Amino acid sequence: MKDISKHPCFNAEAKHQYARVHLPVAPKCNIQCNYCNRKYDCSNESRPGVTSTVLSPMQSVHYLKALTEKIPNISVIGIAGPGDPFANPEETLNTMKMVKQAFPDKIFCLSTNGLDLAPYIDELAEIGVSHVTITINSLRPETLANMYRWVRFNRRVYRGEAAGKVLLEQQLGNIVKLKEKGITVKINTVVCPGINDDEVEEVAQKVASLGADTMNCIPLYPTENTEFALLPEPSKPMMKGIKAAISKHIQPMAHCARCRADAAGLLGHDNTVAMDMIGQFSTMTVNRSEGRTRVAVASNEGLLVNLHLGEARKVYVFEKSLNGYHFVEIRNTPPEGRGMARWEELAAKTLGDCQAILVAGIGETPMKVMQQNGIRVIQMSGLIDAGLDAVYLNLPVKTLCRSDYTKCGESCRDAGNGCG
Q1: Residues 298, 244 share a domain
Q2: In this structure, are residues 159 and 150 in contact, taking their beta carbons and an 8 Å threshold?
Q3: What is the pLDDT of residues 25-78, one digit of tens each?
Q4: Do 304 and 270 lie in a common domain?
């Protein structure tokens, strides 16, 4: 297990000295739990899924900078919803990248149901996320069918035992993958009397065999307008017995505080100032390209801007250095034929660190997606350096050699099919 001396969620002693903050940047969810009601603007409730607001990645960075002045002992920055981080992968990863750059000395963690985690594990390790929590409530599909109304995976909705099988397969497999990357894994299990309370020990035994580091048993919080609203909350003797049983297999965690998705401060003692601050930053208008230093170019050979964006199977990436413009790397663009999804992936992932893109032409749809993601589009033809001057030296675009392309598909060498 990685160093947990300053992680209040993994170390009971640390919770008295070090604070944590959760960034509510992930509103969408890919499952519907029968005990969860993701209700906003509920400041008197302290439970997962609740937040007063949702922040954008850049709003989160500004919020953190202000918050660390008020709470200087913050050691951990996490994302725990209010939905699932990987039902919102672009927002989650962009937030972590920006925060890591601004606060490289902090501990980074995530809490997820584990369903859509697998494609992002390598990237999480590269960013420096050191702790991941996965909620696993049972190993039995028939029990999971009673705990989840539906599960959405790979664009398909599953119900009943089929939903339980899909969810469990992903969860267990991802424990192994996380451990292969050296990431500390905590398992959360929500104890629901009469539903899964007699299955928790077998969960502990299984996850321990896969390499999980610790396990947290959370008593059900009966929540209004949910399927489990009328279930009783587990008694203290029941929870004590369950924790004793799992301790035979895995290190139990005994100081959970049922944290909100926007929690901030010492564990169990959220800072009221933070609650007021986060609302202010949620309405803050920010430049979406702020913090991005690079420029992408649609080019055949890396010397001229000479490709329509729809034709570009790769982009050349540059940045400004003390000695002029520096070539960074070549990046492949997402495959064609996926419509809007292609442009959204290009903007959010391929160009995630780029403030602008130089193109010989661009269609209306990709233009709109680029702008929505804070990426400036410069249409031109000619030397790449001339376009970089426009971005970095703020030269007017009209001084550049304009492209002959007028609209998508009109002069594309491949009849516009690349824009699909």
Answers
A1: no
A2: yes
A3: 888 899 999 888 755 444 444 455 566 678 888 788 888 888 888 877 888 888
A4: no
Pairing assessment for the beta strands 251-253 and 214-219 based on DSSP bridges: parallel
* pTM tops 0.70: no
Q: Which two tokens stand for residue 400?
A: 């550049």
What's CA 369's distance to the chain center, in Å? 20
Among positive and negative, which fits the CA dihedral 89, 111, 269, 190? positive
Q: What is the residue whose two structure tokens read 């001229």?
A: 304
The DSSP secondary-structure symbol of 44 reads T
Q: Are residues 239 and 382 in the same domain?
A: no
Angle at 18 (CA atoms; ends 16, 19), nearest 5 degrees: 105
Chain CA centroid to CA 149, Å = 23
Q: Confirm whether 288 is domain-assigned.
A: no
Helix (H) or strand (E) holding 316: strand 314-321
Residue 287 within a domain: no
φ, ψ of residue 288 in degrees (nearest 5): -65, -15
Residue 4 covered by a domain: no
Q: How far apart are CA 45 and CA 117, in angstroms?
A: 28
Chain centroid to CA 257: how far?
22
- Whether residues 411 and 384 share a domain: the answer is yes
Please, is 258 exposed, middle or buried when counting C-beta atoms within 10 Å of its C-beta (0-12, 13-18, 19+)? middle
Instruction: Evaluate whether residue 390 is within a structural domain.
Output: yes
29 with 168, same domain: the answer is: yes
DSSP H or E stretch at residue 218 = strand 214-219
Q: Respond yes or no on whether the N-terminal peptide bond of residue 82 is cis (omega within 30° of 0).
A: yes
pLDDT for residue 142: 96
**At residue 331, what are phi and psi to the nearest 5 degrees?**
-125, 135
Q: Is the dihedral of CA 327, 329, 330, 333 positive or negative?
A: negative
Positive or negative CA dihedral for 56, 61, 62, 65?
positive
- Other CB atoms within 10 Å distance of the CB of residue 290: 12
Distance separating alpha carbons of residues 368 and 345, to the nearest angstrom: 13
d(CA 79, CA 89): 11
* Whole-number CA gyration radius for the chain: 24
SS3 content of the chain, % helix, strand, coil (to 5): 30, 25, 45
Residues 248 and 326 placed together within one structural domain of the fold: no
| Contact between residue 352 and residue 346 where contact means Cβ atoms under 8 Å apart | no
SS3 191: strand
Q: pLDDT tens digit string along 146-169?
A: 999 999 999 899 999 999 999 999
- Expressed as residue numbers, the domain containing 388 is 294-419
